[in-house]
Input
Amino acid sequence: MYPDSGARPIREIGPPDVLAALRKIEARGHHETTHRVKQRCSQVFRYAVATGRAERDVTADLRGALAVGVSQNDASIKEPAKIGQLMRSIDGYDGEPTTRAALKLGALTFVRPGELRGAEWAEFDLAKSEWRIPGARMKMGEQHIVPLSAQAVAVLEELEG
Output
């Protein structure tokens, strides 16, 4: 069925079998993926336990056995003067007006890029200076109200007009 486990019943798969499969991913340098695959294996084993197909989650025995990936910090600006420099650079952007507006709104509202890309005019109430993002687009599934600064409202009015 699968190259590493064959057609063996899940109760016959032990920690060394799971570790051998994970080591193949780890050897390619995909440490984060290795940990995610281990999590998925754990979910499968827990389901097998709940349905009587396995005695326990054998991935628990692998705690500390996998290499920890080097965490990578995303780019961020920590100095106030550089924030001004970023905003001036966005103002000087001479590409698509909608792209410039999106860059400005991202910097002014701190919403996730996907929420910004999916924004619809019906979500904005410029008179109340609010952006109501529906729960269906939010990570936690709940509506999110983003207060809009005067600068954000001006960007939206310019884009709308």
Remarks:
- The chain has six helices and three strands.
- The longest strand covers residues 130-133.
- Residues 80-160 form a domain with the hpI Integrase; Chain A fold (CATH 1.10.443.10).
